[in-house]
Amino acid sequence: MGGAGLESPPRCPLTSRGRRGARRRRHGVRPQRSPGHCGRRPTMAFVTRQFVRSVSSSSAASAAAKKIIVKHVTVIGGGLMGAGIAQVAAATGHTVVLVDQTEDILAKSRQGIEDSLRKVAKKKFAENPKAGDEFVEKTLSSISTSTDAAAVVHSTDLVVEAIVENLAVKNELFKRLDKFAAEHTIFASNTSSLQITSIANATTRQDRFAGLHFFNPVPLMKLVEVIKTPMTSQKTFESLVDFSKALGKHPVSCKDTPGFIVNRLLVPYLMEAVRLHERGTWWQELSAAFFSLGDASKEDIDTAMKLGAGYPMGPFELLDYVGLDTTKFIMDGWHELDVKDPMFQPSPALNKLVAEKKLGRKTGEGFYKYK
Ligand SMILES: NC(=O)c1ccc[n+]([C@@H]2O[C@H](COP(=O)([O-])OP(=O)(O)OC[C@H]3O[C@@H](n4cnc5c(N)ncnc54)[C@H](O)[C@@H]3O)[C@@H](O)[C@H]2O)c1
């Protein structure tokens, strides 16, 4: 490696074209030079760009230096996701306040966290149960609870919201918290399907607002999507990336685009499986009620994706696991955003099951029966 580098002509610091230029010259291609690029003498443009580069790298360094190191986290919503986020944050040395609407809900969340921590401890400290007990006690002692979000955000570094998936309710919450939270506090939403920008707009701190999308179950799933709106500052973004890493997660980033990365690919795939199953000619559609015709059966589609694509679950199994109402809710939201996009078209079969309250595993029936 080093030898090849020594034989190469010096690289242009702006384009790294040195080696490619040499290759072109060997093949009789005259390298195109733009002023200031790869010339023997440094031109003014070159010097200016170098200067800008060093200034911007030093300002990037100073922005990074000002990043918020999140120590104190307020998690709003003690349901499935919020409890998981609180657990992981506390287990990784953060001080956490978990907020929900009633003491009863918070007691259940706390119990759920304790049960989950005991499972973690059993595995992690299999050889040393005493250390496992200490880990559980220490983690639980880092979590306090409250039913009054406004009263606890005055000195928190980060608010992670994981409440009901409803824009008006999220907006109202953030609008109120904006008045009580410290100036430096970052706000983040764990929404799966709403636009982060439309939540951030309820506040006056759009630069300190981003998406922080965890996956279920939070203690097990490694991924976190960090979503940057056009208003999110680099400092906020980097602080959230660091926080995700501190949780032991793997952050990926994307713009404020519907479904972010995972759901944008996953939900259309699930919907396409439903369409494949319900698709047919008008005659087939008419007779589908009697003969259950489609391009393929749900059992065969599930088997095909497991054995042919190596997926751990087939799409219908996954739909039932996630909850058919959740998928329908996401699709309806996207369809509203762009009614013409064929990927965002609603499915009659899915809508019918949801209307019949057959929501998947949680109700005992969805595409499959679980009773
Ligand atoms: N469930 C998932 O697989 C999943 C995955 C990623 C993201 N999300 C997102 O996370 C958020 C929460 O989802 P969940 O599955 O944990 O829901 P959930 O219903 O299990 O929990 C929501 C909790 O928020 C509480 N709550 C509602 N309004 C509140 C308010 N104003 N103040 C305080 N608490 C309030 C509820 O009492 C409930 O305990 C949603 O935005 C959802 O889209 C869910």
TrEMBL record:
Its EC number(s): 1.1.1.35
Q: Name one GO cellular component term.
A: nucleoplasm
The UniProt keyword set, sorted, is: Acetylation, Differentiation, Fatty acid metabolism, Hydroxylation, Lipid metabolism, Mitochondrion, NAD, Oxidoreductase, Spermatogenesis, Transit peptide
Give the residue ranges for region: Disordered: 1-41
Query: Which residues does the annotation say bind NAD(+)?
Result: G77, G78, G79, L80, M81, G82, D100, E165, K170, S192, N216, K362
Q: Which residues form the 3-hydroxyacyl-CoA dehydrogenase NAD binding domain?
A: 72-257
Which compartments does it reside in? Answer: Mitochondrion matrix
Presence of keyword Translocase = no
Residues given in the record as CoA binding sites: S116, K123, S192
Name a biological process GO annotation: spermatogenesis
What Gene3D superfamilies does the database record attribute to this sequence? Answer: 6.10.250.1150, N-(1-d-carboxylethyl)-l-norvaline Dehydrogenase, domain 2, NAD(P)-binding Rossmann-like Domain
Q: Which Pfam family would be a valid example here? A: 3HCDH
Record-marked site positions (Important for catalytic activity): H213
Task: Point to the regions of Basic residues compositional bias.
Answer: 17-30
Pathway(s) it belongs to:
Lipid metabolism; fatty acid beta-oxidation
KW Transit peptide (keyword) present: yes
What's this chain's function?
Answer: Mitochondrial fatty acid beta-oxidation enzyme that catalyzes the third step of the beta-oxidation cycle for medium and short-chain 3-hydroxy fatty acyl-CoAs (C4 to C10). Plays a role in the control of insulin secretion by inhibiting the activation of glutamate dehydrogenase 1 (GLUD1), an enzyme that has an important role in regulating amino acid-induced insulin secretion. Plays a role in the maintenance of normal spermatogenesis through the reduction of fatty acid accumulation in the testes.
Binding partners and assembly: Homodimer. Interacts with GLUD1; this interaction inhibits the activation of glutamate dehydrogenase 1 (GLUD1).
Name the record gives this protein: Hydroxyacyl-coenzyme A dehydrogenase, mitochondrial
Organism, scientific name: Microcebus murinus
